[in-house]
């Protein structure tokens, strides 16, 4: 806020009222006016109002103006008051006398108001400026005398003119004692300066006389522990280029010198420390530009310190992940951006300047100034390549068999735990194979342990080569091996693999050109069927292995008899299917379809049959799904298709022309060459395609819709009828019926069985019949076994039926007689 300027105070002193009035009119605009008519009153008023200006008449009764002036000037509070004498005397003698008494001006009567105003205004302004100058001078004097530095001035002869050292702190001389002393005398008298410092100062003084500025540092009390470091400045003053003196400034820089010394010591200590530690250290500025690295960092990165400085950290320390292909952000940038300590990512590779790859680890941190602002960052790292390699080696040795390098019991335990946990989540099985080499002790005793060890390695390699990547082949010691198989979905996978292991041992082993014919006994245990824990899995497979040995060695055995029997039976059936296909043991039977409206046989369905070695039929429900699983359904399906076509041609030649429906497996239909196979068979046999009907399930329609439609349309163009078997039990959809070329719907036996007793099944039958009639499709009811079913179906509009009520499936010759009897 700007301070309000103080108004001028003017005292008018005259014994004539007319003069007072004239003076007041002349100066009232310049300030506040006060009046006195005699000397005593003037002196009293001056003490009260402390005027800036007094217009004082000389000739007054009693005390004259001179006496009033003298009285006022002797008062310290009033001595700076400006006094202008007013008199009728115009001689020089009175003017000089007035000035001698301390007046600043002289006004002669008669008074001219304009001159009075001008003179008063001038002296008021001069007084105000003088007042400001005094304030400034006092302030400057106070500042100079309170500066923490020494300030002095020497004239052209190097005599002291001024010094602010009132107490004599710097040279042992007060400012008063130093006044008018020569520079050299002041310097030489100072006991705190040694000879060198004195010589430097005297030489500097000579240079200053030549007009040169001199700046340098000196040490006071250099030989003492309490030495003072001083910054010296000597600046000449010139007038028209001529030397007139110089100003000398001395500043105590001891704290700064001590700080510099401490910083230097700390820096040297830090430098020695960083150069001595075993870790690499690199620092950067806030932009990631390198400004320091220690020798270890230079060694690890391959960059010299000189070459690395001023380069980006990415160029000096290129980092990637463990693969070496994916660049990684240097932690320094994260530390700078997020202002926190950042650990280096695990498995980080440093690519050196010489293209080597080192595994490194450690961390980066931001560097902050005293205000907490980020100035850069530091990264500390070290080479862990050998450490990690050793750790990996030690871990490998701890988890692997030293002879065969296979996982040992500890690693097997870990993998078994993970396998069982995964099996729980995915509803799968885990199998453990306990393998013991039969009579291996005899081998060791006959050829020695060295050859025995080589043989064990060969066995280990053969087992590894014939296992899946997800399997664990483990050696438990001696001649005992364990194989862990996760992700098992079918038990026959376990039996097949056990059989394959036996086959592996059927091949001879050779060590040093000596042949070894070995067998093994295998015990099998399966989680969760007969073992709910790793311990039980191991125990049960071990027991099963001993059981295999008891049964004669060279074989495998399940821990649970029922599982072993089931898997064995399934395995035998699979082998028998292959044998039956090779030896053409499959038979095709036929079941008639009857149109009850005229009781005529309108067609028949070809049904596959297979007898076991003892002449008993094997249920299609048992062997057909297995044939699909083991990939034999396609050749079996092709066999049925050919046989049914040949029989249809045979009946046609006998004058018993009837259409034969053939079941097509989804796997068979999915073959890329299915249509080509049908077309070639038709051309080869020259069959009337009106005799052929293909039965497919709804599941076929739901897969690869575009291809399915194309194949079905091509078959229809060929003249083959298409029927949907077991309609309503699969993916039944009106969309499928509309989208695909379907001729016939077959109502599944499951609906016919309960149609008379179950309203839901009856409703389904009604719906299928109504749907077929609406879409103008033919209908066939399967599994008709009673007259009640016949009546109910015919009443609903279904007239073609197939089932035991009319006839059971029969072989070709019997069907020939049936056709002749019902023609």
Overview of the molecule:
By secondary structure, this protein is an alpha/beta fold. The protein folds into five domains: 9-143, 3-Layer(aba) Sandwich (Rossmann fold); 148-257, 2-Layer Sandwich (Beta-Lactamase); 286-381, PAS domain (Beta-Lactamase), CATH 3.30.450.20; 400-559, Alpha-Beta Plaits; 587-821, TIM Barrel (Alpha-Beta Barrel), CATH 3.20.20. The protein has 31 helices and 33 strands. It has an eight-stranded mixed β-barrel with strand order 25-26-28-29-30-31-32-33, surrounded by four helices. Strand 11 (280-285) and strand 12 form a beta hairpin. Helix 2 (39-49) runs parallel beside helix 3. The protein is elongated.
List keywords for this structure.
823 residues; alpha/beta; Rossmann fold; Beta-Lactamase; 5 domains; eight-stranded mixed β-barrel; seven-stranded antiparallel beta sheet; elongated
